[in-house]
Write a structure and sequence with these properties.
The structure holds two protein chains of two kinds.
Chain A lengths: L6 H39 L6 H77 L4 H27 L11 E4 H19 L2 E6 L3 E4 L1 H18 L3 E9 L2 E8 L29 H11 L3 E6 L5 E7 L6
Parallel strand pairs in A: 2-4
Antiparallel strand pairs in A: 1-3, 4-5, 5-7, 6-7
Helix pairs in contact in A: 1-2, 2-3, 4-5, 5-6
Chain B lengths: L2 E5 L3 H13 L3 E5 L2 H10 L4 E5 L7 H10 L6 E6 L3 H9 L4 E5 L3 H16 L5 E4 L2 E4 L4 E4 L2 E3 L3 H12 L5 E2 H9 L9 H15 L6 E4 L3 E4 L2
Parallel strand pairs in B: 1-2, 1-3, 3-4, 4-5
Antiparallel strand pairs in B: 6-7, 7-8, 8-9, 10-12, 11-12
Classes of the chains: A alpha+beta, B alpha/beta.
Chain lengths: ~325, ~220
Amino acid sequence: MGRRVSTNDVIVRTAAYYLAGFVCVLIALSVGAYAFMAREYASLMGPALGTPEAAAGIASAMRHVVVTIVTIDVPIVILVAIASYVLARAAIAPIDAARERERIFASDAAHELRTPLTAIATVAQAARANASPESRAAFEEIARTALDASEIVSGLLTLARDPRPAVLQCEPIDLAAVVATSVRDLSSMASVRGIALEGETGSAIVDGDERRLRELVRNLGENALRYARTSVRIASERTANGCELIVEDDGEGIPSDERERIFGRFYRRENDGAGTGLGLAIVRWIAIAHRGTVTVSQSSTGGARFVTTLPLHRDA
Amino acid sequence: MMRILVIEDNPSIADAIAQMLEGQKFAANVVHDGEAGLDHLLRQSYDAAIVDVMLPGIDGFTVARNARAEGVQTPILMLTARDAVEDRVTGLDCGADDYLAKPFVEGELIARVRAILRRADRPLVTVIEVGKLRVDVGARTATYEGKGIDFGATEFRLLELMARNAGIALSRTQILERIWDYDFDGSSNIVDVYVSQLRRKLKKQGANGIIETVWGVGYRLTT
């Protein structure tokens, strides 16, 4: 996922470029004016040049020139700074509108796709009841595929939005509860794979969207269970200036040159059959929307260790 | 036999849901738009209704709201678009009992239907009055001396719990289990965070000090 930049950042940056360009021109003009005045004074003083009085006279006159130039420059720079901001905002407006249209299109497209996918999934599941054993398996496959496709659509719908707190439903929530419920939800997948799943529930209250935080832990947990050899550990803990959600496994680990790329959309690691390819992109989106971060490093057993940091709730 | 009303405009989805319900020995009746659905809810007695949010004409929220306004107690399960957080919140605010995102797994649909049917078995007091505080659980509103107070979903559930147990001191663990279904060992001060939010909002309407701290136990709503 490309790092997203807020509209205001773009405006400020563009305005800064405008201003920097103008300041260069202004400096050139000022230096030019200064040089011109210096030459004028020198030619004016022509014959008397070289006497101490002349030198002092020129020095005082040039000080006056500098003061004049600076007093003219400062208000100009301020005016240009304001003008740059206004111009930059006007220049960005159509881009912003285009981005908004694109977002609306993505969201509309997702909703339009969802109805047929729901029809396929629902009809296939209903048809299963009266089907012969072979058709039954086929209907189940159809339903599962439609549900998976819908999952991808949801993922894309999420990633089409800017990750910011306004798109979340935040309220105070204890990460320990998120870990406890996620471990419960993942336990059947863990036992099917014969992996020991350990949950460590350290209390840490954040201002978060519970459903999203559970999705984050579920995505990281499912990922860890796919790559683990024998065990997966999910933990929440309060740190000096925030809190951390840790998901680690004892699998092969992730080579350092892949550690940034795995958070990209549809990035698949070798031998990675399952999954939508959006899981980790969504994990990063959820972390950023909560004003947090997510990074991956190596666990003590050589596997992957994902650490999500989130800001603490103000009253916690 | 339990009778269930299905209000869903897409005919293939509606028929498939009916088929799933019939497979579980429910009797299903399908209608395809909001007006007809509301009409059915008002005139006939159903044990539960499954209502799609996106309906031609009047939408699912309006159907639920109008049915509740007319005193219909039928439990309602809303079918919403996935990810639509607003749908979830509005759905529960308009009087629906539960919501389910589309597309869904058959087992999930049946489990939710059974859950709302069970809930309907034991009628609950829907308006609780404690002194000048009035908590309307059905409409999800609370007032103090007639002045409305805006609470978030979790805050409201906590207030409801305290109002139902007015005069009784509830321990943090009791509150944790009832409101959050927290089942981990160790401590959490999430209850204190919510109680301070409740107190702040109540104080703004002049309800100062109605939630007491009971030292060594927890919190109590004074009668």
